[in-house]
Design a protein that fits this description.
Layout: E1 2-6, H1 17-25, E2 28-31, H2 43-50, E3 54-56, H3 59-63, H4 67-75, E4 78-82, H5 90-101, E5 106-109, H6 114-122, E6 133-135, H7 148-159, E7 164-168, E8 170-171, E9 176-177, H8 180-188, E10 195-200, E11 208-213, H9 214-217, E12 227-231, H10 237-246, H11 251-255
Parallel strand pairs: 1-4, 1-5, 2-3, 2-4, 6-7
Antiparallel strand pairs: 7-12, 8-9, 10-11, 10-12
């Protein structure tokens, strides 16, 4: 058996009870932190809280050499855990498919995701979000500025009057996490005066939300990671009220969108 367990958004307490039960029932537990991480805890604290040993796997150890995980699942009960929901990243879908090819039973224990948190925290209606995109560090994609694919996703969503969730680049091996102000500065060149919402530490006791145009957000300090951005389409009346009330958004900027 291979259980895919979502750890939720922020710390060792963000997991569901079902997820916690699966971790404690597993013979071996594996974790990856390259697609995301729990910014409010450490691997040691996570292990101590659940009373288990957790084996860390890097990208190569999941995508290129998954045999130890699959062998453990074939021999007994293994759990593969990640921040958020375990099936959001395609690398995890690939691992589940590899398990199926070996006739290993699998299950998915869901966790709270950044996508649902972005809607819940901001008050933007979940069904009005179009495709999401990831904004990479400029040095990480081998080209100048913002990739055209990112620009296209946001532009297409705006033309359809949909919101865009922008995930910000994570380089776990370098312990480097793009901040919302950096993301806003990069996007401001292509989307002048566009309203955006920066979100920091979703799932924690003190998440930070700030709405303003991208130029203004580029000068705002959001604090510790993890961060993300939302580029809204036209706000419905209740959405506009929510952004003013919950996202520290200036009335003039919001009403002008």
């Amino acid at each position: 058996m291979l259980s895919f367990v979502g750890l939720g958004l922020y710390d060792e307490q963000s997991i569901t009870l079902r997820g916690q039960n699966r971790l404690q029932a597993a013979d071996r537990v594996f974790i990856e932190t390259y697609t995301s991480k729990l910014a409010g805890t450490t691997l040691d604290a996570l292990s101590d809280f659940h009373g288990i040993e957790i084996e860390h796997r890097d990208r190569a150890g999941v995508e290129q050499d998954p045999a130890p995980i699959l062998d453990a699942a074939e021999a007994g009960h293994a759990a593969f855990v990640t921040a958020g929901d375990p099936m959001i990243a395609t690398t995890h879908v690939d691992l589940r498919l590899r398990a199926a090819q070996r006739d290993i039973e699998t299950e998915v224990i869901h966790g709270v995701t950044a996508q649902t948190a972005a809607s819940s925290l901001t008050g933007l209606q979940n069904y009005r979000f179009g495709p999401a995109t990831t904004l990479p560090f400029p040095w990480a994609h081998g080209a100048d500025g913002v990739p055209s694919s990112v620009i296209k996703t946001i532009t297409d969503n705006l033309e359809r009057d949909l919101h865009t969730l922008v995930f910000l680049d994570i380089k776990a091996r370098r312990d480097e996490y793009m901040t919302a102000d950096t993301g806003a500065e990069l996007l401001a060149e292509a989307f002048d005066d566009q309203l955006a919402i920066g979100i920091a530490r979703a799932g924690s006791d003190d998440p930070v939300l700030k709405a303003d145009n991208l130029d203004a957000l580029a000068d705002y300090s959001f604090g510790k990671p993890l961060h993300m951005l939302v580029i809204p389409g036209t706000l419905h009346e209740m959405e506009a009220q929510a952004v003013k009330a919950f996202c520290d958004g200036p009335t003039a900027v919001i009403d002008s969108q």
